[in-house]
């Protein structure tokens, strides 16, 4: 439980205020995404929803999950797994769309 | 390891080997396997939505946006309380940390209660996997509801596991990794919500 002494100096502690601010932003983005869904934007509806979801997850990952303040190796992990998932999506869609 | 025995060990040995980065790394690696698990399902969703855009829209109209929005707010708030709980722990405020953890668990239960009523309403309308009502619908709608039940069901299972995880933490206090797990549950919901509840 106690934050170990020998590596404590490396830990960046996020303040209560920052966390609450991020939560306010997340709730605001949620109300934006709900409102936008009610307006017909045609093909852009899905795009806007996904961009907002991406912004929300980057807030959660960076601040709540502390990635922004962690050692760089965790960012590398995240990039590698995100990139892998992206490749799986791209290859599947190439296959699906260009199938005869 | 409990706090007391830990503190006692630290006193007697003066130096305790702890690899917190390694522990966190293990947790993140596990979370990436989860990402691929849900990622595969989002992929199936993407392909079928691409194939049946209109039927996905019609089927999504049946979902209750209000309940979805409420559950989004509940889950985001629980993500905040677990992050605050860790922040309190880092400031050695054990009492506040425990209070925030209890609030997180209560919010998680609230999420599941909403989910129960939401699914219950679907069942009453005869919409559940393999039901006659559902199987008479066109393919795209069957797929939409199939994915809806599997994906929100698997997510709900993660919420339940998260509740168990967080409860164990209340007793043994090794908060950070289950905090990460709880944020993952939130992250998945951030994508599930617009993709299922907000198609107009």
Detailed description of the structure:
Chain A is mainly alpha-helical and 100 residues long. Chain A folds into 2 domains: 11-69; 71-100. Chain A has 3 helices and no strands. Chain B is mostly helical. Chain B has one domain: Four Helix Bundle (Hemerythrin (Met), subunit A), CATH 1.20.120. Chain B is built from 8 helices and no strands. The chains are: A mainly alpha (100), B mainly alpha (200). Chains A and B meet through helix 1, helix 2 and helix 3 of A and helix 1, helix 2, helix 4 and helix 8 of B.
Instruction: Identify low-pLDDT runs of chain B.
Output: 1-13
Q: What is the CATH top level name of chain B?
A: Mainly Alpha
Strand content of chain B: under 5%
Number of domains of chain A: 2
Q: Separation of termini of chain B?
A: 50 Å
Structural class of chain B: mainly alpha
Number of strands of chain A: 0
Give the second-level CATH assignment, the architecture of chain B: Up-down Bundle
Number of helices of chain B: 8
Order of helices and strands of chain A: HHH
Q: Determine the most extensive contact between two protein chains.
A: A-B, 49 and 52 residues
Question: Any idea of the CATH topology of chain B?
Answer: Four Helix Bundle (Hemerythrin (Met), subunit A)
Helix content of chain A: over 70%
Spans where pLDDT lies below 50 across 5 or more residues of chain A: 1-9
How would you classify the quaternary structure?
heterodimer
Q: What's the CATH H-level superfamily name of chain B?
A: Cytochrome c oxidase, subunit III, four-helix bundle
Main β-sheet of chain B, in a few words?
Answer: none
């Amino acid at each position: 439980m106690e934050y170990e002494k020998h590596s404590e100096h490396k830990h960046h502690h996020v303040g209560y205020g920052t966390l609450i601010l991020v939560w306010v932003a997340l709730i605001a983005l949620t109300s934006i995404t709900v409102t936008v869904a009610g307006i017909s934007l045609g093909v852009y509806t899905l795009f806007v929803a996904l961009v907002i979801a991406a912004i929300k997850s980057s807030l959660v990952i960076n601040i709540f999950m502390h990635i922004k303040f962690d050692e760089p190796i965790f960012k590398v992990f995240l990039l590698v797994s995100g990139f892998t998932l992206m490749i799986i999506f791209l290859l599947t869609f190439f296959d699906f769309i260009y199938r005869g | 390891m409990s706090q007391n025995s830990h503190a006692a060990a630290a006193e007697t040995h003066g130096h305790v080997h702890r690899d917190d980065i390694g522990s966190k790394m293990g947790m993140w690696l596990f979370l990436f396997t989860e990402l691929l698990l849900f990622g595969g399902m989002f992929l199936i969703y993407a392909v079928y939505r691409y194939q049946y855009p209109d039927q996905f829209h019609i089927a999504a109209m049946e979902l209750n946006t209000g309940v979805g929005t409420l559950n989004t707010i509940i889950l985001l708030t629980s993500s905040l309380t677990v992050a605050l709980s860790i922040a309190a722990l880092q400031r050695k405020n054990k009492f506040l940390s425990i209070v925030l953890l209890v609030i997180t668990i209560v919010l998680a239960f609230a999420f599941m209660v909403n989910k129960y009523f939401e699914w219950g309403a679907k069942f009453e309308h005869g919409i559940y996997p393999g039901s006659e009502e559902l199987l008479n619908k066109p393919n795209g709608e069957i797929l939409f509801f199939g994915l809806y039940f599997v994906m929100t069901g698997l997510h709900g299972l993660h919420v339940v596991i998260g509740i168990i995880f967080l409860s164990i933490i209340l007793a043994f206090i090794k908060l950070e990794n289950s905090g990460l797990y709880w944020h993952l549950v939130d992250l998945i919901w951030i994508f599930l919500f617009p993709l299922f509840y907000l198609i107009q």
